[in-house]
Amino acid sequence: MKTSLKIVGVHGLGDHRGEPWHETWEKAIRRSFPQPDVDLHFDWIDYDDIFDGVDLTVWQTAAAFSKLVGSALGEAFSAKKRGLFDQLDHTLRWYAGYVVAWVENPEFQAATRDRVLTKLEDAQPDLLLAHSLGSLVTYNALTHTDARANRAITAAVAQLNYVTLGSQIGNPFVVRNLTQGRIALPPIKKWLHLYNPEDAVFTSQIRMPGEPKFEQVDAAFDIEGIADHDPVQYLSRPATIDRVYRQVADEKRVADGGLTMRAFAATPPLVRQIEPRRRALLVGINDYPDPAARLDGCVNDVFLMSAVLQECRFAPDQIRICLNDRASAQGIRDRLSWLVADAHPHDELVFFYSGHGAQLATYGASDAVDHKDETLVPYDFDWTPERSVIDDQIFALYSQLPYDTRLVMIFDCCHSGGIHRSGSNKGRGLEPPDDIRHRAMRWNVAEQMWENRPLQPVTPKFSDDRVALRRYSGVNGDTRRLGRAMSLRGTTQTEYDDLAGQSKSPVGPYLPLIIEACQEGELASEYRHGNESYGAFTFSLAKTLRARQTLSFAELVKAATASLHKLGYDQTPQVLGPSQVLAAPVPWLGGVATVSSSKPRARTSAKKPPSPSV
Hints:
Blueprint: E1 4-10, H1 21-32, E2 39-45, H2 58-70, H3 79-85, H4 90-103, H5 106-123, E3 127-131, H6 133-143, H7 151-158, E4 161-165, H8 172-178, E5 190-195, E6 214-218, H9 231-236, H10 238-255, E7 278-284, H11 298-311, E8 319-323, H12 329-340, E9 348-354, E10 357-363, E11 369-376, E12 389-390, H13 391-398, E13 406-412, H14 434-437, E14 441-444, E15 449-452, H15 466-473, E16 479-480, H16 493-502, E17 513-516, E18 526-529, E19 532-535, H17 536-547, H18 553-566, E20 574-576, H19 579-582
Parallel strand pairs: 1-2, 1-3, 3-4, 4-5, 5-6, 7-8, 7-9, 9-13, 11-16, 13-17
Antiparallel strand pairs: 10-11, 11-12, 14-15, 17-20, 18-19
Helix pairs in contact: 2-4, 5-6, 5-7, 11-17, 12-13, 17-18
């Protein structure tokens, strides 16, 4: 029996009316399709007419371009891509306006959503191919409550293989404004995301660790020109042929009875774990290039924490350390990628950092300083975002983790500038040089004095709780703090509460548990233990971990704080995270453990994931 495969294609940016894009896509797919005995049927979704009435001014276009470029400062928008955009013509800049116009206009979304769902109900496709803006249009349709309101549409979506190419779904501006800070898996059969790192049209990777129905496919190409956004190139990649066409066609032939399961080389099923997988990354920097910035106890902190974690059931091969000159900005980011790679629910992950902290007054897309970034200070730090470790560079690594993964970030550093005290009691923070400090200052003409420049709030009306707002975005509300994913948080407190009340599952980006050695305006001090130096907080934390058998994370930090205060240290550690996690027992406590093997076994049950706090 001949297998029949129904394909629906959705175009991307630009006005496709009058262009033969249907024929171009069909020709590319037929030419690349690996099984000639599969009968292909095509259908299409056009939506350019919906934008007929959109008349964007030059100012609106420039603002849209800034939103998309400025929202993707980290891995999602590399310096190479940023440089390429300096060469783009007016037309492509104009297209940016349509992306933002659609994301910010519920009426446009509703019109395109209705068109997509009507087509899916009518065509009942096996494969949905969505390029560029078409991926946003289809994602919105597939994840919206409208898709669940009609049983026929629900059935059509459930058997759908969804393929996105040249997609902006992972762009931080889109994640913040369209997906409430977290990309959700649509209720489909499989999602394959074709990603080309050379594609400069606001595209991004998508990470959904631990999700067996999602796969990012490497569809790299670099063609003449600067965009590398061509849908035909995506549709013709060898990886597309192997991971999309062949896999979907084989699955359909199995369903049609034309191929035995023995002959079908399916992706191996996900093996879950009984014992949670553990990983730890420990970073310590003493020997900064500037002699005045050097510290004494950070390397000792790393070895102390490694010993404590091994006493708390971490195997030696589950721990990686990174010290001194190896702890460059890129080195730390690469190792963070290792830490969270292929994370699954119930995994226990630890990131520990001991070194300097600082704050950067950071330029936005409009070349004006509009906020501050909290940063770790890597070995090659030079007061630029490229050689820093700021949250905009790492939130993509943790914000999509499964909600019941346990990621703990421990920072023994200051959050802003520190002061080097005399003697052994050094502060772990750097003050910026005068030219960097000048970015965040202005001259008060009336008072004839320098004052701090007022900056934009990171997320206006994020929380009605002043204490929570300060802990998430600094005392002035203008700081992107590490581990908070504030660039992805676009909802107000009221909107968040409404969304949480309507959802049976957590809402917003994954929030790690964050343990910090001190509060924002305090000093993280070093401690002299006989003739050896340590971070005062790390030493107290390790002593507390070793002494107690059963302790929640909140109790752990409270006990370490009490120890610090007894010794006269004027710093107050803090812990931040989902309330259920704060109250949960520290999973690695319990004394010295004998670790026979770090290999996981099959998991048979799962716990309800915790809801993230505001």
